[in-house]
Amino acid sequence: MSVLTRDEAQTRARLLDVQRYEIELDLTTGEETFDSQTVIHFTAHAAGDTFVEVKPATLRSVSLDGQPLDPAALAGNRLALTGLSEGAHELRVEAEMSYSHTGEGLHRFTDPADGETYLYTQLFMEDVQRVFAAFDQPDLKAVFDLTVTAPENWTVLANGITEHQGGGRWKAATTPLLSTYFVALAAGPWHSVTTEHAGLPFGLHCRRSLAPYLDADADELFEITRQCFDRYHEKFDEPYPFDSYDQAFVPEFNAGAMENPGLVTFRDEFVYRSAVTDTERQTRAMVVAHEMAHMWFGDLVTLRWWDDIWLNESFAEYMGYQTLTEATRFTDTWVDFGIARKAWGYDADQRPSTHPVAPDPDAVPDTASAMLNFDGISYAKGASALRQLVAWMGEKDFLAGINTHFKRHKFGNATLADFIDNLASATDRDVHAWADKWLRTTGVDTLTPVVGEAEGGWTLAVEQDGDRPHRIAVGAYDIEPASPGRLVLRERFEIDVPGAPLTRPGARPALVLLNDGDLSYAKVRLDAESWQTALRTLSGLPDPLARAVVWNAARDMVRDGQLPPAAYLEAARAHLPYESDLAVVQGVLGFASAHVADRYLADGARPAALALLGELTRDLIRRTEDGDNPGLRLTAVRHFVDCAAQPHTIQEWLADGSVPGGPELDPELRWRILNRLAVLGATTEAEIAAELARDPSATGEEGAARCRAALPDPSAKAAAWTAMFEGDTLSNYLFTATAQGFWQPEQADLVREYVAAFYVDAVPLADRRGPAIAEAAGRHAFPHFAVDAEAVALGEACLSRDDLLPALRRKLTDQVDDLRRALAVRDA
């Protein structure tokens, strides 16, 4: 299939103006395919040639202005339209289209819990062509009329309000001007909860088997939705631009969510079947806020070409966290951003695949290259840059510029240059120079304090590795006299970096913390005395965001070979038992287990690391016996299970159905325990099958696949490998679950032969099954725990090939670089 190039898109946009799509889909024709009929009304500004895109199972007929075209002329995904005359035209396309099981196009899912079938679209980038014929590029906006024929007992959701006309036929309200990739459909016997707010219908939708869980959280979800909706109307001058606001929680969704105008789709793991922490509820709320921000930035005003995708995501990411903090009960969202989300950006920015937040247009020459930029840079680094921009220019001026942007470009397309010009119109600051330093460059600056003493005071200079301008806060902390394990804030002051050294009054503080408040994007180091203070008193820092900055500094030092991994574990052992912020606990435990214990320590040191983490999590379990902090207790229980080196305790929990003192084992905990028992060789296929009979849900099927792949048995490994790389029948979620179970540090010898096999089998798999499975294979089926020079050499040899699908090449580039880093950490 041909990918669309930027040059081709520009040429087609100069030639065409697209007014309207009339789309009819028949979803009653079978389990493998559906019928698609499209009429496109468009105008050619001059005589010329162009093409329309479609990816059919069978192209039945095509006509242009009433004259038939030869369906056999379809070349890949392109049908040439030659000899167009200047003026209005009508293109009709009838096709049989294939359902997807990879989360691309029109995805079809049958719920194993009750046999009901659900469909939903994910049309991002090029996948609209899997559903209907289109001039598929973001700057050819049009209005859309959608009619759907579905089984009689189904409900059909779309971008606009839908009306059932009888006989299973549904018609959606005509949309405003939209880019093709925003057209959305969700069809099935949905369970729906509805309300009204600000004169608009609001809806929540999920599979029927999840109905009780959605009902339990509907009030919370609607409250978050209303609070964010109202807060955005306080911030933005333009009103919400669509006729309804539906949020559909759909199965086997690849992303967190998709900002389809009026019909946001979410992965249905956000409908919680099992107990979750308040931080996880906060994450769900942030995704709600993030997707709603897209209604303005992304949907109302859309990028012209994919080089500006970062603008959509960075803006929504920043607004999601900020609006959640301002408008909801989740007032510490930036702590979670700092300890978890930001690390995603830091890591991505230090790999060979790094790119500017706003890449040069020539670096995004086609849709295949654009797809690779959905990463920690476009989300976390971009949001961090915008947060720094707001701190630098002031929120009032920032919002004034944003509202100018919306006013000038509503229902149209805009570029980075438009965005920067509109911000610059609202401030005397040199936003263009700021953008050049922050948005057009790569890498992470490192800020190191140089602290000294002066007569009557102390001095601070900041050494900077990098050249971005930073506006940061500096925290000066003293030991609390009555409690040597605690720190008190003496003062917090703002500085510009680069800047001249300064002198502050009083004795030298016990701890000097750069970027206190985490308003900038940079790696932070501590001077020697401050680091020693932190080792003694980290849990005694009064502000959780300050603690997150210090933990991030320690994390970066480990990754850069400047702090032994074992020292990080010792710091976690010393301070997490006293940590009060759940996001910090989750972030530190996650890095300590998944990175330090599993990859950064030599194989021989791993048992001791697991023992330390087991002691730490047991302490947290003891600390929460009074029931006052169920989220912390749940986090501790999860990590205790994951690091169990012996099966006895967790076997007892599984047999009893609860942890002593709580919690009771819900499906998530039962599958987690069973998975760990599988890794340890302490369960059987029969016990896995029995658990699946107990929980015959989609999540249960994924849990069983994960457990079976984790069994330390050659035949189990062979069966899992065949299912992933040869069968081509696993859905995206079952593929991921199988891959997650397959590689285990405890089983290095058992799976050693598969390390080389991965590089042989992943390449044809990606070619056969496309970008979504290629990304899943590179992320989850990669041999993460083979940290040795031979594995690096295998990866480098594979990357030297010129036939890798871009999505797979990008993942392998990152994974092999992570292996190099892990080796360097071990050798440091």
Automatic annotation (TrEMBL):
Residues 511-821 form the ERAP1-like C-terminal domain. It is an enzyme of class 3 (hydrolase). It comes from the Bacteria. Residues 21-181 form the Aminopeptidase N-like N-terminal domain. Residues 222-438 form the Peptidase M1 membrane alanine aminopeptidase domain. Its cofactor is Zn(2+). It catalyses: Release of an N-terminal amino acid, Xaa-|-Yaa- from a peptide, amide or arylamide. Xaa is preferably Ala, but may be most amino acids including Pro (slow action). When a terminal hydrophobic residue is followed by a prolyl residue, the two may be released as an intact Xaa-Pro dipeptide. CDD domains: M1_APN. Its EC number is 3.4.11.2. It holds the Pfam family Peptidase_M1. InterPro entries: Aminopeptidase_N-like_N (IPR045357), Aminopeptidase_N-like_N_sf (IPR042097), ERAP1-like_C_dom (IPR024571), Pept_M1_aminopeptidase (IPR012778), Peptidase_M1 (IPR001930), Peptidase_M1_aminopeptidases (IPR050344), Peptidase_M1_dom (IPR014782), Peptidase_M4/M1_CTD_sf (IPR027268). GO terms for molecular function: aminopeptidase activity. Keywords: Aminopeptidase, Hydrolase, Metal-binding, Metalloprotease, Protease, Zinc. Belongs to the peptidase M1 family. NCBIfam families: pepN_strep_liv. This is Aminopeptidase N.
